Amino acid sequence: AAATPDKVYKVGVDNTYPPFEFTKDGQLVGIDVDLINAIAKDQGFKINIEQMDFSGIIPAMQAGMLDVGMGGMSITDKRKETVDFSEPYFAAGVSLVVANDNKNIASLDDLSGKKVVVKNGTVGASFADKNTEEYGYSIIQVSDSASMFQEVTNGTADALMEDYPVISYAIATGGLKLQTVGERLTGDNYGISVLKDKNDELLKMINDGLANLKENGEYDKIIDAYLD
Ligand code: GLN
Question: Does ipTM come in above 0.85?
Answer without folding.
Answer: yes
